[in-house]
């Protein structure tokens, strides 16, 4: 038999313990056998190996290769500037590797946070004496003494319990404290047994003595920690896309470099000219600034989200939000306000709201209000603040709001337990001794023989009992938690049962009210094609009622799956059940929440999960985007999550999704921008080889564009505000590529070619103006050659200044696009202009980048090309809008699948 099925005596015997606890001579042996009562870390890879791995992924290897080739070329032909190129590439590798490692280190802090929840010292009985020991030294068989306010340090079986109530929310997810006693339990589930206390929970009220039966990693708490540690979080969609993009760009650069090396050999170039040419092709095609720009764009997006109460812990999670298709959300504190309030009363045989009681409530309902004010176990702290069961706090607040502020001395109590489902307190009042009782109607009503109606005390007949039962059903259908209140005067003739022959006072309906903004957020999710699933530890009836109030459930018969039913479903059955248009999970356990996430991921959904307890941590880590509550979450949940809601509000998730959707579009915008400049960087090398002209653009000048002038405008595109229509579109598929044929055609086949034409035209404009003859060679330090390459570089940058405004929108025309709303783009253009002026007109710029000052005629020559770029792109956008418009309304794939099923 399991330990919770045994009697207290049998439980002690099964653990080799007794009423006096363990003997000191047995402690050391048990510590050796079972280990210390602490959470153990699994063996981890060396931090140095993890650090080194951040510099050895595919994109980094390509950059290492480019840097190595640059240093090799410098060793063979010194003074060509290749060493500067090599150092610049090494700087890019260092920045990206260090930042990625910092992200990884953050993700390893969950186990340290778990330890903080366990108490340092505990009270135990050993050898018949009460003593304090370190919680780490607890062993199975120890007798643990607990009282109100204590955290539970290990899994224990109760031996004695006095008015004991425990907050199990960190383990089971239940929002209300639960009564516990020492009687044998018939429950199968250990966590639901009324005589079991679990590590990581806390004592809300009462006192207890319990025997420890599991410590450390063997506790339910430890099992969750192990699950959390062994849960592997997959790459985010953005990480997969960046990896795919890195492979594409790197392989393209290598293939082009190798191909044109062979072309150079075929047309008779010397080996070193050919080698330099191949390096130039590779460097021109590898966007060295891609990863830094993505990182900075994501970092700035996190700042915008923080202003909307969403704190991002892992940068790739910013974009993951944008592709979210399903949100699995808690109820308490996320959809609701996490505070109990009295919503409805049943008094004088009628339903009413608390604000309808009127001025005479104290006179007509004095005993009802006195019961609400006095029948509780609350403690006052810091003056007037009440600490304890939120349901009891709500009842006291009801009484106070109606003017009932009494503090009659408590002279006795009949405590609450799970069998009685009621509690009673005895008080010495000016009118004599009184008993006040509250509890479930089915447990209080049979003990009542009379009912209070206005100022009268009437007999309670069968018709009156049916009326109360009907009132209960009406209130329960609204999702209210219903309590019955009763009272009676106590006299010397009261028999053995003080709760007999009570006077029924009335019914109270309590609720945790929904947040007012949640209903609109649910509507936004529905419009945006995002499915919302409630996953809660509360009762199904309560869950469905709240879901209906906020618009999450609109049909008459939503699918409701309890934890017990979920245990019986196979993975295939669960996946099919998730196709229901409206689904609510209630009474779910810790591991079950993760099963739901895994089932959704098998359906290729991008899943966001909210949570606040230890029990939620594995699901938070497994989800594509784990969302912890900033106000109510345990440290464990926060460490396992990717995002923390600073206001614990579901509406903040929707705001963050809107920002996340903008991130993917913005990354595409700056990809278009930076890839466009690759074409005018590559074509000069092709012309150099194929037409035997002086090299129009040097490698260092390419870096001046990729890591200099392009960086800030590209970053400006990365922080564009969300489009007004962002939340009227379905979620983007996680398989959709960052780079598709339309982006490549626009960047390489259209904008890039126009920029290349302008760059080559400016190069030849300077040469022809100086009388250069085709075929004549120019030394590398010839003033004419320096001015010509400077003109080529200048034309690229001028064209990119025009291009940054074109890239703000893929379809919308320039006149319909706000051009001055992004300060970072404007600042970027200003810096871009300042940099090119410094490169062209300062001695250090001339020396470093191989440039020379230009006359005003070169600038005037390039301006018509920039205007032509604007006109051509506006014409292209008009043609796209005219002949290939995007569909205005696209049904979400999630919803389509639901309807098919």
UniProtKB/TrEMBL annotation:
Q: Which PROSITE patterns match?
A: ATPASE_E1_E2
**SMART domains, per the entry:** Cation_ATPase_N (SM00831)
Q: Which domain of life is it from?
A: Bacteria
Name the UniProt record assigns to this protein: ATPase
Q: Gene3D superfamilies recorded for this chain?
A: Calcium-transporting ATPase, cytoplasmic domain N, Calcium-transporting ATPase, cytoplasmic transduction domain A, Calcium-transporting ATPase, transmembrane domain, HAD superfamily/HAD-like
Native source organism of the sequence: Methylomonas koyamae
Q: Which family does it belong to?
A: Belongs to the cation transport ATPase (P-type) (TC 3.A.3) family. Type IIA subfamily.
Q: Which residues cross the membrane?
A: 48-73, 85-102, 248-269, 275-299, 747-772, 784-804, 824-844, 856-872
A GO cellular component term found in this entry reads: plasma membrane
Query: PANTHER family in the record, alphabetically?
Result: CATION TRANSPORTING ATPASE, SODIUM/POTASSIUM-TRANSPORTING ATPASE SUBUNIT ALPHA
Location within or outside the cell: Cell membrane
Q: Which UniProt keywords apply?
A: ATP-binding, Cell membrane, Magnesium, Membrane, Nucleotide-binding, Phosphoprotein, Translocase, Transmembrane, Transmembrane helix
Segments of this protein annotated with the region Disordered: 1-20
Q: Single Gene Ontology BP term?
A: proton transmembrane transport
* Span of domain Cation-transporting P-type ATPase N-terminal: 2-75
What is an example of a Pfam family matching this protein? Hydrolase_3
Q: What InterPro entries has UniProt attached to this entry?
A: ATPase_P-typ_cation-transptr_C, ATPase_P-typ_cation-transptr_N, ATPase_P-typ_cyto_dom_N, ATPase_P-typ_P_site, ATPase_P-typ_TM_dom_sf, ATPase_P-typ_transduc_dom_A_sf, ATPase_P-type_domA, Cation_transp_ATPase_P-type
Q: Which GO terms describe its molecular function?
A: ATP binding; ATP hydrolysis activity; ATPase-coupled monoatomic cation transmembrane transporter activity; P-type ion transporter activity
**Coiled-coil zones:** none
Membrane topology according to the record: Multi-pass membrane protein
């Amino acid at each position: 038999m399991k330990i919770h099925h045994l009697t207290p005596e049998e439980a002690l015997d099964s653990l080799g313990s007794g009423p006096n606890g363990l003997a000191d001579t047995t402690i050391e042996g048990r510590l050796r056998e079972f280990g210390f009562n602490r959470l153990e870390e699994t063996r981890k890879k060396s931090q140095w190996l993890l650090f080194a791995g951040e510099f050895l992924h595919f994109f980094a290897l390509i950059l290492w290769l480019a840097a190595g080739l640059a240093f090799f070329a410098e060793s063979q032909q010194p003074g060509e500037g290749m060493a500067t190129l090599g150092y610049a590439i090494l700087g890019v590798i260092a920045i990206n590797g260090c930042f990625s490692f910092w992200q990884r280190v953050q993700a390893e802090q969950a186990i340290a946070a778990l330890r903080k929840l366990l108490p340092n010292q505990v009270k135990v009985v050993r050898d018949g004496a009460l003593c304090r020991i370190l919680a780490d030294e607890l062993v199975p068989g120890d007798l643990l003494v607990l009282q109100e306010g204590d955290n539970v340090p290990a899994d224990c079986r109760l031996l004695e319990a006095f008015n004991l109530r425990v907050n199990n929310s960190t383990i089971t997810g239940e929002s209300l404290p639960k009564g516990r006693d020492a009687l044998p339990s018939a429950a199968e589930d250990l966590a639901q047994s009324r005589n079991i206390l679990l590590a990581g929970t806390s004592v809300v009220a009462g006192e207890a003595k319990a025997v420890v039966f599991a410590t450390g990693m063997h506790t339910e708490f430890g099992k969750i920690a192990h699950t959390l540690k062994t849960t592997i979080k997959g790459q985010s969609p953005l990480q997969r896309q960046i990896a795919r993009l890195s492979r594409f760009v790197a392989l393209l650069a290598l293939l082009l470099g190798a191909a044109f090396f062979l072309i150079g050999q075929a047309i008779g170039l010397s080996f070193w000219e050919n080698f330099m040419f191949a390096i130039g092709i590779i460097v021109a095609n590898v966007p060295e600034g891609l990863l830094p720009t993505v990182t900075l764009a994501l970092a700035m997006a996190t700042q915008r989200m923080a202003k909307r109460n969403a704190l991002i812990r892992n940068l790739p999670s910013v974009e993951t939000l944008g592709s979210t298709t399903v949100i699995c959300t808690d109820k308490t504190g996320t959809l609701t306000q996490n505070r109990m309030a009295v919503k409805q009363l049943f008094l004088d045989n009628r339903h009413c709201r608390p604000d309808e009681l009127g001025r005479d409530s104290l006179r007509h309902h004095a005993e009802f209000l006195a019961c609400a004010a006095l029948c509780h176990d609350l403690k006052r702290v810091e003056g007037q603040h009440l600490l304890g069961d939120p349901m009891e706090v709500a009842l006291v607040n009801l009484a106070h709001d109606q003017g009932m502020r009494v503090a009659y001395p408590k002279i006795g109590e009949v405590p609450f337990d799970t069998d009685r489902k009621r509690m009673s307190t005895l008080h010495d009042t000016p009118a004599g001794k009184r008993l006040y009782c509250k509890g479930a109607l089915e447990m209080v009503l049979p003990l009542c023989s009379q009912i209070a109606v206005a100022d009268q005390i009437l007999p309670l007949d069968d018709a009156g009992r049916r009326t109360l039962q009907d009132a209960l059903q009406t209130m329960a259908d609204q999702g209210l938690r219903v309590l019955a209140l009763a009272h009676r005067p106590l006299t010397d003739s009261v028999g053995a049962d003080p709760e007999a022959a009570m006077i029924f006072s009335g019914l109270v309906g309590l609720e945790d009210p929904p947040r007012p903004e949640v209903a609109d957020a649910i509507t936004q999710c529905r419009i945006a094609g995002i499915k919302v699933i409630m996953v809660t530890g509360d009762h199904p009836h309560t869950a469905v009622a709240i879901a209906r109030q906020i618009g999450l459930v609109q049909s008459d018969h939503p699918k409701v799956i309890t934890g017990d039913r979920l245990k019986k479903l196979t993975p295939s059955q669960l996946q099919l059940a998730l196709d229901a248009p409206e689904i609510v999970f209630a009474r779910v356990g810790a591991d079950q929440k993760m099963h739901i996430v895994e089932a959704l991921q098998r359906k290729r959904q991008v899943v966001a999960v909210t949570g606040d307890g230890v029990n939620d941590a594995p699901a938070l880590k497994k989800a594509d985007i784990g969302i912890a509550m900033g106000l109510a979450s345990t440290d464990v949940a926060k460490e396992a999550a990717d995002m923390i809601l600073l206001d614990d509000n579901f509406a903040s998730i929707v705001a963050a999704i809107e920002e996340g959707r903008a991130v993917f579009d913005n990354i595409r915008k700056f990809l278009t921008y930076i890839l466009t400049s690759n074409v005018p960087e590559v074509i000069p090398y092709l012309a150099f080889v194929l037409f035997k002209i002086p090299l129009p653009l040097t490698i260092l000048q390419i870096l001046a564009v990729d890591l200099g002038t392009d960086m800030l405008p590209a970053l400006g595109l990365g922080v564009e505000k969300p489009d007004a229509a962002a939340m009227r579109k379905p979620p983007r598929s996680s398989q959709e590529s960052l780079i598709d044929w339309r982006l490549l055609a626009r960047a390489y086949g259209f904008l890039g070619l126009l920029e290349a034409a302008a760059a080559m035209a400016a190069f030849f404009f300077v040469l022809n103006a100086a009388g250069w003859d085709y075929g004549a060679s120019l030394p590398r330090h010839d003033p004419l050659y320096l001015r010509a390459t400077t003109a080529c570089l200048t034309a690229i940058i001028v064209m990119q200044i025009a291009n940054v405004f074109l890239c703000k929108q893929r379809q919308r025309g320039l006149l319909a696009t706000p051009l001055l709303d992004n300060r970072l783009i404007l600042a970027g253009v200003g810096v871009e202009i300042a940099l090119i002026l410094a490169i062209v007109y300062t001695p250090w710029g001339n020396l470093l980048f191989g440039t020379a000052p230009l006359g005003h005629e070169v600038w005037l020559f390039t301006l018509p090309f920039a205007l032509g770029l604007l006109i051509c792109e506006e014409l292209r956008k008009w043609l796209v809008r005219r002949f290939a418009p995007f569909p205005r309304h696209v049904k979400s794939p999630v919803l389509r699948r639901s309807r098919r099923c």
